[in-house]
Amino acid sequence: MQFKDYYAAMGVAPDASADEIKRTRRKLARKFHPDLNKDPKAAERMKEINEAYEVLGDPEKRAAYDKLRAGHRAGEEFRPPPGWDEGFEFSGGRPGADGTDFSDFFEALFGDMQRRRGGRGGRTGREQGREFAARGEDHHARIAIDLEDAFTGAKRQIALHAPEWDEGGHVRTRERVIEVAIPKGVHEGQRLRLPGLGMPGLGSGPAGDLYLEVQFHPHALYRLDGTDLSLDLPVTPWEAALGANVPVPTPGGTVEMTIPPNSENGRKLRLRGRGLPGATPGDLFVVLQVVLPDATSAKAQDLYKTMARELAFDPRKHLHA
Prior knowledge:
By secondary structure, this protein is an alpha+beta fold. 25% of the residues lie in helices and 26% in strands.
């Protein structure tokens, strides 16, 4: 998948105002709309323009895209980096809801964001006597927390960025800091609902809600797979060969684990229930990494020479068959 430069697609500068982008889109539509231009390539060009406008004409998508665009060039091989949209608030309806078929690039950036919203998007209104009331839009954002918070629960202050148009039609970002209660046992991908922290309502209508999708920061020790964790555990050759009881760090504290004799490098051992907590806790998989002592001292060299002389060991014998 290649990175798309939406500004180049529309022929506008990166600092173009909302009005400039809107005027340019109208101008391009008159030139390339399939009803007006019978060139076989016009329909594809119009699709490209519509996709670019979907992003650049929306302050939320444009702010997130601009942050990403700073480190990429058009046409280069691209995959969205993890957490690229972390902390951005998004609202509104689903792009492409009118049947527009957008590219894989757009889908990779914004399709997942739209799907994870789920609930209500636009405002709904009703007459209450003479007063009009409309519920505010729900907002959605992705946040990253520490893995340890899932084991203990926590209260965290999180900064969110809500892009919007300024008076000159340029994107500005309004930051707000909220306190979030992280429940014990939260899983990656889980959505936390904060009632009333979305868009304010109109009239006496209630405010929308804020939904936070949880991700975890990369951890120095553990890898996450659903509710299971994996840990690389360095062991000595004699611990692997003879078996041993060794201490293993877990998010819930250090435990002692038995290494069976004749364990090979890469062997995976399971500590049940030591993964993420929950109704059915995950497991912790310990992957043995056999570490060889260096041979820089004369004594170490003599020991290695003794092993080479007295152990009938050929790790490559299967290659000689």
